[in-house]
């Protein structure tokens, strides 16, 4: 079992930056992948990025490549999403889910993730 708490969301101007954090508790943090997803109102929850246990592998959605960076600190049981050049398409509630199983390639489908937090909201003003 894994419990996840996202934080760091807020209001930012278009073109600005924000860093999201995800704190995990439960089973050994360094053994599982962690992803980031987002969901805007009236939209499906979509994949943003994922990172392997050792941080040796990462994968990103095309829409955020070059702007978002996923990282993790296993000692702090935390995963981060650094977001720069935020755009009007980026506002959403952001989630950091964890899959029950460790598989490769890194999972990018919502159904592949088993544990979800409550999310943190990102608002981008133009």
Radius of gyration: 13 Å
- The main sheet orders its strands as 2-10-9-4-5-6
Proportion of helical residues:
under 10%
Total strands: the figure is 10
Helix/strand order:
EEEEEEEEEE
Largest sheet: 6 strands, mixed
The number of helices is: 0
Spans where pLDDT lies below 50 across 5 or more residues: none
Instruction: Please state the average pLDDT score.
Output: 95
Which descriptor suits the 3D outline?
globular
Report on the architecture of this protein.
The protein is an all-beta fold and 126 residues long. Helix content is 0%, strand content 44%. The protein has strands at 2-7, 10-13, 18-26, 34-39, 46-51, 58-60, 68-73, 78-83, 92-95, 120-125. The strands form 2 sheets. The protein has a 6-stranded mixed β-sheet, with no helix packed on it. Strands 1-3-8-7 form a 4-stranded antiparallel β-sheet, with no helix packed on it. A hairpin with a 6-residue loop joins strand 5 and strand 6. The relative contact order is 0.32.
